[in-house]
Amino acid sequence: MQLVVLPFYRRKHLRRLDKIKPKLRSIIYLVTICSLDRKPILTREDIFKTVTETLEEVAERKRWLVGRYVMMPDHIHFFCSPVTEDWGLSEFVRDFKSLSSTRLRKQGFEGKLWQREFFDHLLRSEESYASKWEYVRLNPVRKGLCESPEEWRFSGEVYPVEAK
Length: 164
What we know:
With 164 residues, the protein is of the alpha+beta class. The protein is built from 6 helices and 5 strands; from the N terminus they run H-H-E-H-E-E-H-E-H-H-E.
């Protein structure tokens, strides 16, 4: 028996991904993860760097897009969107929290970094991504940590995530 391998564009099971991807790309979550006991440690330069690098790496590995984020001293907010259905939000966040904790322990951080739970909010079609982002980016201003959101250096964007 001879094995015949079809080119990818002729495989039926791959053609359906074109139908799935646009639907998945329109799913956007706003995620909030708090440090354990709300300790104000996340804006330490070393911790901030490790956490954001790990977030980007796990997102790529788990095939999630991470958009804009704001790191506050005791929590992080970020927008994210799945690329495929391979990994759910819980698995993505679990792996991010686990790997960032492991890396920080290797750098000398003692104790647990994250609270057990996290909060997520699925943006609905009628909700404006822009208005949610405006609320999140003003968080440091409301807390008195800076005068304007542009001054807050603990924020950024990994990949442009847009509401459809």
